[in-house]
Amino acid sequence: MNFAPHSSLREAEVNDTGCSGSIALEEWLRWGCVSPVPAMVNEIIRDLKLLENNIDAHMVFGGNGGKLQGDFKVQEDKKHREKYLALGDSDKKFQFFSARQIACRLLGSRGYLCQKCWLPMEDCMCSKVEPCSLWNGIRFWLYMHPKDFLRQNNTGKLLWQVFGVQAAILCLYGISEDEEIMWNAFKDAGKARVCCLYPNQNIAPKTAQDAFSSQSSADLECTHSLTNRDRPLNFVLIDGTWSNSAAMFRRLKEQAKFVWGEEDLPCISLAVGASAMHKLRPQPSWDHTCTAAAAIGVLAELQLLPEYSSYGLDKQAEAVEDALIVLLEALTARRLRMGRSITRKIQLQ
């Protein structure tokens, strides 16, 4: 399908001539995913395609969020609300909500966004991002809200662009296939090797240096886990708006209680300031930061500990910082070209 590069509306591309359009595994993986194609996502896409054929109206999307527009949206709203209400189980409703968000974003982004950097094709920044190997004692998990999936100014995507999809793994919130992969890895690693980068208000804040300095027997256990090559420490980065992050953290705690019998998930807070992205996307307060900056922060703090200073974590942090600057420059250039402001009002608490 052809469309004007800066058009606010675009028709969906469904790579299927019949009624059963769906996302193939190869395409799903190209967007940065590692799981099988979620069954509910493909079910929703098939329903959308069937509706499109039945009412003889094209799927049209607008803006950056893959939002349906026009007459098709009116008809689809009725259909998806009926289906949502028919789902009796609250968890099924939640999964349906997540899958529909992702399905619409996928369809609205086909042929429009680069599948690696999630920027419009004409603004692709992939050639400017330098890959770097992450020390194999660490693995990042990007626990991403569906509304941040394929979002152009999302910074979590930079981690797998730089480190690769097996070192920085995408897990979509509410997608059972993704969450199963993540929690199976956590079960195998053990609770001592799982840590969430989130300011847990229920316990005293702990920095990365507090958690991993080998000053106590408890810390020694974490230290051992961090230096065990076969079982890296798993850092969970909650990748969503601050308004959505509380629900995401709550879901993590509920699953932790189911797996380990207790709700408390090991958490660390980082002493980081505003990232470069703050110029375009201010956070609710100066002590909040973007996902990529959180990863930079934990790598930088661990580098200061003598027992981890030989793993090049500072260089790995610099690689993410460089990618963050590349993203900022790409987004800034796009906004200037489109005549949009390159600054945002600071959001106050």
TrEMBL record:
The keyword Transport does not apply. It catalyses: a uridine in tRNA + S-adenosyl-L-methionine = a 3-[(3S)-3-amino-3-carboxypropyl]uridine in tRNA + S-methyl-5'-thioadenosine + H(+). GO terms for molecular function: tRNA-uridine aminocarboxypropyltransferase activity. It comes from the Eukaryota. It comes from Durio zibethinus. Keywords: S-adenosyl-L-methionine, Transferase, tRNA processing. Residues 110-340 form the DTW domain. It is an enzyme of class 2 (transferase). The lineage of its organism: Eukaryota, Viridiplantae, Streptophyta, Embryophyta, Tracheophyta. Its EC number is 2.5.1.25. InterPro entries: DTW, DTWD2/TAPT. This is tRNA-uridine aminocarboxypropyltransferase. GO terms for biological process: tRNA processing.
